[in-house]
Amino acid sequence: CEGIKNLMQKLMGQLMNCDIDVDSLEDEDYVPVSQNRIRCSMSSLISWYDSVTKKTDSETPSKKRNSSSRHWQSPPVVVIFKDMESFTTKVLQDFIVISSQHIHELPLVLVFGIATSPMIIHRLLPHSVSSLLCIELFQSLSCKEHLSTIIDKLLLTSRFPFKLGGKVLQVLINIFLYHDFSVQNFIKGFQLCIVEHFYSQPLSVLCCQPVDVKKRVYSLSHDQCENIRRLPSFRRYVEKQESEKQIELLTNDSFLKEETEKLLEDLHAYHENYVSILRCLHVFTSSLPKYPLGKQIRELHCACLENRVWETEDYESSLQLARMLNKTDLVTMLQQCVEILMSSSGKEFDKTVEKLKEFLTQFQNLEEASQERDVSVSSQKEVQKKTDLYHLQKTLLELKESRRSKKLTKFEMLRFEVVDYIDSLVRKYLVPADDRTLHEILYFNAATVLRGHLNAAPRTALHTALNNPHWYLKNQALKCDGGGISNKAPDICIVYKLHLECGRLINLVDWLEAFSTVVMAAEEPNADAASSDQVDDIIHARFIRAVSELELLGFIKPSKQKTDHVARLTWGGC
């Protein structure tokens, strides 16, 4: 906003025209039509606020308000300055001073978006202005917490049938963590996965809610049935069946549809069970020292998707650490697991919940045996009595042997039993999705395609465009085999291919002659001298422009070592 008038126009336009496109408001030149019909002043804003609050009061007659306190009871007008550092300081100061004079008539809340430090408020606003504000600081959630929420609501749920494969999810997370920290870009990447999956996978019609599976399966054509038979996971499934069932699956479409319906139902049930057990495992692993399987559930989810997590060294170390948990932590974790499984929609966890409750009961009724303590006390007394060196060594050796062969306490035995039971649940329910039949229908695994769309490689794309313009322009006249140079290519492409043949320093005169030779290859040899001189000037100008563009792109730079030479900056075809 260049001035206070411009600020008031935008403020009143956004308040009085709620259906205005948000993107259009970003344009400085955009002015809603209705703004021209009203006077953009504070009195007009107060009049609008009075009309709105009176309308609200009339709609809620049960709330009686007196006129003196009505404005304070009514909701305030909230104005958000998204980027305070880049906002015009003088305009902001004037707006605050003017608004403070009408605070009893127009309650106002200003929200300043600060990217640096809260101290910037006192640097931008003098004391006379900042003293008019009642400043309260608050901080938004970190982007990592927003990402965890999105993954929890979209991916770690059985509500949506579409799923991301382990490598695809890892690509999106890596771009988020190592490039931009943008939750919005993560969502766009997720949307791109959805579009790519439903566009490239012919059987994505079956990626639907479990209620619609039966209807869609039985409406499949013969070609779609053949697509199912070509799926790698389905072929592995057929190989494990008996010979008669194999023949039916490969020849009978009706039998195939019945089997497909059962397999998809099993796949949806697998999702429900997977998410619940994954959360239970995360309860155990998220509090272990050094977090062998990761602190965030997304890390554990990626590990379970990519391979059998129980075969990894990190999982083994996690089990060893879990077998050393104290009673309080173990009971708390079991209680959390019971809550997770009871809130799950999976039907297979009734016996699991009973087993976990049984463990909790055993922990509550557990009484520590005092035999070990008595043995240690008596041994210490025996050591204290005997001062002879021989007997002392003998007693210490006996103590060492007894500690080696001592029996586990009831608590230790129960703790081992709990950890082994959680391990059995992991091995049963956290099987990688790639091992499930028909996973290609619901899972998007084309990580290479996604990486090609999202991971920009500007140098490679630039080299391809300049070295082979046919790749982008699709013009057959530009296509040349054997690494030749077409005289119909753009000037910058010709100059670029010629510079690839040079060394560290490029002579501009020789470069110009080579460029002129390539360009004049299609000219008539019997052209007259006048036209030849004119063409040379044009070619010279074209060469200068192409070299300047190449310098702008960073391929060459002027050199002070030799006159009429430029230095080459890139090697190896970028």
Automatic annotation (TrEMBL):
It comes from the Eukaryota. Residues 459-571 form the Origin recognition complex subunit 3 winged helix C-terminal domain. It is found in: Nucleus. It comes from Cnemophilus loriae. Pfam families: ORC3_ins, ORC3_N, WHD_ORC. CDD domains: Orc3. The keyword DNA-binding applies. Signal peptide: none annotated. Its main location: nucleus. This is Origin recognition complex subunit 3. GO terms for molecular function: DNA replication origin binding. Component of ORC, a complex composed of at least 6 subunits: ORC1, ORC2, ORC3, ORC4, ORC5 and ORC6. ORC is regulated in a cell-cycle dependent manner. It is sequentially assembled at the exit from anaphase of mitosis and disassembled as cells enter S phase.
